Amino acid sequence: MDTKPIIFSGIQPSGDLTLGSYIGAIKNWVELAEDYNCYYCIVDMHAITARQVPAELRKRTVDQLAQYIACGLDPQKNTIFIQSHVPAHAELGWILNCYTMYGELSRMTQFKDKSAKNADNINAGLFDYPVLMAADILLYQADLVPVGDDQRQHVELTRDIAQRFNGVYGDVFKIPQTFNPKVGARIMSLSTPENKMSKSDKDPNGCIYIMQKPEDIMRSFKRAVTDSETCVRYDTVNKKGISNLMQIYSVATGKTFEQIENEFVGKGYGDFKTAVGESVVEMLRPIREEATRLMSDKAYLEGIYKEGAERAAYAANKTLRKVQKKVGFVPRG
Ligand code: ATP
Ligand code: LTN
After folding, report:
1. Residue 299, Cβ neighbours under 10 Å: how many?
2. How far apart are the C-alpha atoms of 117 and 109, rounded to whole Å?
3. 49 lines ligand 1 (CB under 6 A)
4. E strand segments, the chain
5. What's the 148 CA to ligand 1 centre distance in angstroms?
6. Spatial CA neighbour of 150 closest among 188, 123, 115, 102
7. Is 77 noted as a catalytic residue in this protein?
8. 11 Cβ closer than 6 Å to some ligand 1 atom
9. Beta-carbon count within 10 A of 113 CB
10. In this structure, which residue's CA is closest to atom 22 in ligand 1?
């Protein structure tokens, strides 16, 4: 297991998991799990960059663990853990702050978007968020970081920080690569296909949640915004809504865009939207059922996250000790 290349990825427990996070991230984690030594984290420290209700954050964190497992991540083969259980993340995060430039963080588009949306809470943690993310990745000497398109810039910054640090102290960090899926790296909102589908979206029809009931999923797909033509054709410039639905359908059924276009020749958008909705319902049904079962088994979940944190801490501390030595901290003895 130790000779396999390493994967690290994480999702914030800041809301219910969406079809976007499933297609853009988790589904690929499952597909990559066999060939890599994988660390999958629930990044609760990242989540508090926006105000959270404590009891809800606690519940969502553990529910998210159940959902990871229900999506197909085997906790025996993958290390699944909660970020705040491994203090090395905060410790390396601080050190890396001193190797990251203000100007670099100012250029992060997610920071600009999120600070525009939360003008009353532009806290230092929100600004510093990508440095904690860099610490997450670099602690595990990850080769690959499977994320959706919106996180690409953060992984680029991680590479820059690692290269800067290695340039001063020698080869301490592995330089990670982003893994973006070919189809589905950016699933758009069903109601405003110009915007990314996101769990913090205020419009309930724009977003599909992996735990949503089939009838609610069908309703959102039937209301999905399309265009004034009647032709199912892939064109991300002029037919954003339809192209988004085609991506979702392609992931859910394994069909190519060409096969999808042929399947719906001469049929209306109504038929197409129903077919997409049904394919998503069937893709998510086993996940929802298994997650519901696991979410009620608190003792099992606690066992998983305790063991995960132990395994993660072991790997993380090795890197952290090396870094502390390099920067000149006195060893604890
Ligand atoms: P928030 O609204 O709180 O920012 P989010 O819905 O954008 O959250 P994240 O938790 O930031 O989701 O993302 C989790 C993972 O899923 C990341 O790897 C991200 O790139 C990916 N992801 C999220 N939304 C989408 C999407 N619409 N399409 C493709 N990938 C996505
Ligand atoms: N910023 C990511 C979540 C995240 C992450 C990571 C992803 C935190 N640390 C490390 C990959 C690797 C997001 O989804 N918004």
Report:
1. 6
2. 12
3. no
4. 6-11, 37-42, 79-82, 144-146, 177-179
5. 7
6. 188
7. no
8. yes
9. 13
10. 21
